[in-house]
Amino acid sequence: MMTEARERKRKWQVFPGRNTFFCNGRCIMAGDPGVFYLTLGLIIVCSALFFSFECRLTYGNVNEMPYGFLVIIGGGILFLLTLLNLLRTACSDPGIIPRATHSEAANTEAQIKAHEQSTGQLNKPRIKIVNIKGMAVKLKYCYTCRIFRPPRASHCSLCNNCVARFDHHCPWVGNCVGVRNYRYFYLFLLNLSLFCIYLFSCSIAHLVLFTKRMENINSNAQESALLLTFKESWGSLIEILICFFSIWSILGLASFHTYLTTFNITTNEDIKGSWDKRRQPEAFNPFDQGSYFSNCMTVLCGVIPPRLVKTEEWATEDDWLVYELAQKQRKGIQDTTVTQQTEQNGNRVNGGIENPGLNPDPPEGNYPRQS
Q1: Which of 55, 170, 176, 202 is catalytic?
Q2: Residues 139-161: pLDDT tens digits?
Q3: 142 labelled catalytic
Q4: Longest dimension (CA), the chain
């Protein structure tokens, strides 16, 4: 029950996580997306150098290269694809799972206490075991979000959110990578790899062709043709250096995520060795679709689940209470609201609570209630 009049705000304005919002909450990024702007700047700078030097001096010269416009069009297409996939990854909800309200958290506490009293054992650490295709999977309890996280979800310490099918937090794109934006992240890596190779190759070819042209034009000049080329096309040198030092890490990342996609596993699972038979001889990936092609289709072409947190909507009283609790957690203040509510309810267990951690066998993609 409301004890005082609340200022009317949108959900993104009282969002408990550490995120930055744009477009009235429809675009969401990490709280400190500074490295993202570096990524965006490098892509735009390299593209600008390409169109300013290579395209202007060589590929736009119709007399010497009548089909050079195809090189310009190819560069423009790769630039747009790279930029669009970067923005889609950076500005979309990665699959944030809403935090439990006070009533939901109280019901969860009541269920945990009822289980402890019936078994005589403390559930520490708080976990639930579910069976997915014959594989026992642990659902861990998140003390920040006060929910049992669904399979493959994890809590991002930087954004302070639980994310469905959490892959990793990528500072280069300024966002978490999860179930709702992984395909765009992967396409961004592929397009960026092709774009870097394309720019590097076109820049080298441009320098060679332009140097030959300088030799023909200034055959008696005291300065060498190569030096004249560097003076006229200094931007190409900057472009080549950026692409050369960037391409190795970009290709490595693209190759690594191609491997992850073909086996339908996440970076988080790969690091932890969740399905590693060397750690657990009986372990296997229950989300494996049986073939490389099926795994790729599932990850890259599967249905994207809807947003669970509609941040553009008006905040409710529950949203305010969750936000206030998050502020207390950041200050290290212990909240006793849920404990008091649980004690008032006794050991009553509400079977209708909408929390995937309380479902005995939740399928993949079954996430909590919409907020």
Answers
A1: 170
A2: 999 999 999 999 999 999 999 99
A3: no
A4: 97
